[in-house]
Each structure stands twice: as structure tokens, then as C-alpha cells.
């Protein structure tokens, strides 16, 4: 019987994933669940055939250059692969996969939560009740922005963007989107296509970002693009912190251009932006878009499916 491939799991994935990985691989698990450093990744590459990292492990060009040829495949436990220098890994002959599809609903659910929480004063309202400071009520108290009947602009109509559109339709929103190309009508479900960000933004009472982080999308939302939104718009970002110029976001809130923002992603993670803490109209969560029990199992299984296909001599389904 052939020896099992050796697999490094730098983060503690779901119990079901660990159990299956132990059954089929020689698993090296970082029980401490600390992010893998560049040094650890490079050192581990000489001991393992495969890795299942998360977006917390950074495969920069420098790391890629230091990888031992023993490492054959990086099966990411994430849909985003902006933590990987794909060209550098390809040059080293390392196969890279991701976990699309399985997290779309969980991420879209969280984007809805961010949108609703930002629109309806979730931060200030929760604090008022929680601290016992709620001592009066008035019809003009904590008046928010209604989503029903409002226009939702979606940047990136991939799997997560489409899941967001579907959920937002249930809230009676009118969907607009900007994408590289228009969707087939059965996928667009009546959403209005915009060939440019510049035409989408003025139509977006709410704007939700669902595109990957790349050099082209860095600071996609900046002083110029915030200015194109309708007054009192709401920004939602459950994609990547790199998409938003955070100083410009604060300036847009200060100017009253934006009513609120709902953010699950930040330029600096973990940690976020300390300046945001002073804004009750920024509703924040710590990058937990895909963090549901079902989705974590599905992500782990999808990463293992990719490894299984690779070690069986086939092509993994989710090559990037
Ligand atoms: C993803 O899958 O890209 C999520 O952000 C979690 O890493």
C-alpha cells in the first residue's frame, strides 16, 4: 500500500474536515491555530506534499521562491486567493486551488446583515439597550434608511454577488450590477447591467462589493468614486479590505455623503482600523463572512476533494 501523502493544516479547520484529513492523509495539524508565518511555510514545504492554508497564510513571491520542490499543491480553504502570488507559485510548479460556490450563501447572508445593521443603527441601538442608557423614545429617534424599494448596486456579479442579489430581491430591492460582462438573462433575473462603475454608482442607494482583490481593484472605492454615489448611500464590504480607501471612507461619512457602512473586511487584518471605532454608523464584523458550521465543513471538504483529485492523478475541480 502506498504511503499517504503528508498534509499540513496550519489552522484548525472544522472537526469533520480534520477527521476526514486524518483518515486520508498523514496530517500535520497546527493545534495552536496560529497563522503560518513565512518561515514556517518555507520550512514545512520540505516536510509535506500538500498544504491546506487559509487567507491568513501569505504565499508571497519571496515565500514561493523558498518553497521546497516536495510541496506539490496548495489547496486553499478560501475562495479568495489574493494571499497567493499565483504567478510565482506557478513558476515553482505548485498547483493552487480554492473553494468557490460553497461559501456564497453564508457570505451573502452576512452582507445582508451588514447592510441592514448599517442602515438601521445596529451599533448605537445595541449599545443603548445593553448599557441601560435607553431612557426615552421619540418618533425621530434612530430613524434609519429603508432597504425595501431601494436600489442595490453590486460590484462583481460572481457567485457571491448573485447570492446577494437573490437575497436582496426578497427584501424588495431593485438590483443593479457592474461586471466584466453582462450575465445571461436567466442568471441576471432582471438585474440591470452597467458596463462601467461610473454608471453603476449614481444608481446605488446601497452598494455592495463582491469582486476579488487585485491590483486593478485596490481602492476601487476612493474619494472620486464615493462622490459618484447618491447622497446618504450605504457601503457594504464583505469581500476584501483592499477594495476600499479607508481614509476616503471616513471623509465620505464625515461629509454626510455616506449614511453608513457595513464592513467585514479591513485593510489591516486582524485588527481593523482603530479610527472606525469612533463611528457608530460603521457596523463591523471581524472577517466572518463564511463562518457558519455548514459552510466551514463544506469549505474543508472542497479543499480535500481538490487534494484527493490531485493525488489520484486527476485535475482538481477548483484550479486557479
Ligand atoms: C474567503 O474564502 O476568501 C473568505 O474570505 C475566507 O477566507
What do you see in this structure?
With 320 residues, this protein is α/β, with parallel strands linked by helices. Helix content is 33%, strand content 15%. The strands form two sheets. The protein has a seven-stranded parallel β-sheet with strand order 8-7-6-9-10-11-12, sandwiched between helices. A five-stranded parallel β-sheet has the order 2-1-3-4-5. Helix 4 (86-91) links the parallel strand 4 (73-75) and strand 5. Helix 1 (15-24) runs parallel beside helix 12 and helix 5 packs across helix 7 (159-170). The longest helix has 19 residues, at 293-311. 42% of the residues are buried. Residues 54-55, 78-80, 103, 289-290 line the site of (2R)-2,3-dihydroxypropanoic acid. The site of (2R)-2,3-dihydroxypropanoic acid has 8 residues, from loops.
Give helix and strand order, one letter per element, not per position.
EHEHEHEHEHHEHEHEHEHEHEEH
Let me know the largest β-sheet: 7 strands, parallel
Rg, please?
Answer: 21 Å
- Name the CATH homologous superfamily of the largest domain: NAD(P)-binding Rossmann-like Domain
Strand order of the largest sheet: 8-7-6-9-10-11-12
Distance between the termini: 31 Å
Amino acid at each position: 500500500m502506498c504511503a499517504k501523502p503528508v498534509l499540513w493544516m496550519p489552522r484548525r479547520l472544522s472537526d469533520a474536515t480534520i477527521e476526514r484529513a486524518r483518515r486520508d492523509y498523514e496530517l500535520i495539524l497546527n493545534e495552536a491555530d496560529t497563522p503560518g508565518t513565512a518561515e514556517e511555510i518555507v520550512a514545512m514545504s520540505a516536510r509535506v506534499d500538500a498544504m491546506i492554508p487559509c487567507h491568513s497564510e501569505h504565499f508571497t513571491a519571496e515565500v514561493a521562491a523558498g518553497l521546497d520542490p516536495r510541496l506539490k499543491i496548495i489547496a486553499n480553504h478560501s475562495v479568495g486567493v489574493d494571499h497567493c502570488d499565483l504567478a510565482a507559485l506557478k513558476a515553482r510548479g505548485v498547483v493552487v486551488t480554492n473553494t468557490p460556490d460553497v461559501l456564497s450563501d453564508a457570505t451573502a447572508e452576512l452582507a445582508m446583515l451588514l447592510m441592514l445593521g448599517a442602515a438601521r443603527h445596529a451599533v448605537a441601538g445595541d449599545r443603548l439597550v445593553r448599557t441601560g442608557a435607553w431612557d426615552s423614545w421619540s418618533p425621530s429617534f434612530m430613524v434609519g434608511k429603508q432597504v425595501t424599494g431601494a436600489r442595490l448596486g453590486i460590484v462583481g456579479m460572481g457567485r457571491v454577488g448573485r447570492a446577494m442579489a437573490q437575497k436582496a430581491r426578497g427584501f424588495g430591492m431593485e438590483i443593479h450590477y457592474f461586471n466584466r460582462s453582462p450575465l445571461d438573462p436567466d442568471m441576471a433575473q432582471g438585474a440591470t447591467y452597467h458596463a462601467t462603475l461610473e454608471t453603476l454608482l449614481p444608481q446605488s442607494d446601497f452598494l455592495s462589493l463582491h469582486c476579488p482583490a487585485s491590483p486593478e481593484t485596490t481602492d476601487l472605492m476612493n474619494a472620486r468614486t464615493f462622490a459618484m454615489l447618491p447622497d446618504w448611500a450605504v457601503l457594504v464590504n464583505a469581500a476584501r479590505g483592499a477594495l476600499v480607501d479607508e481614509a476616503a471612507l471616513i471623509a465620505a461619512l464625515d461629509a454626510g455623503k455616506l449614511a453608513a457602512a457595513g464592513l467585514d473586511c479591513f485593510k489591516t487584518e486582524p485588527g481593523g482600523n482603530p479610527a472606525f471605532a469612533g463611528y457608530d454608523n460603521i457596523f463591523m464584523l471581524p472577517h466572518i463572512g463564511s463562518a457558519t458550521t455548514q459552510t466551514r465543513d463544506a469549505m474543508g471538504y472542497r479543499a480535500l476533494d481538490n487534494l484527493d483529485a490531485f493525488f489520484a492523478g486527476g485535475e482538481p475541480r477548483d484550479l486557479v
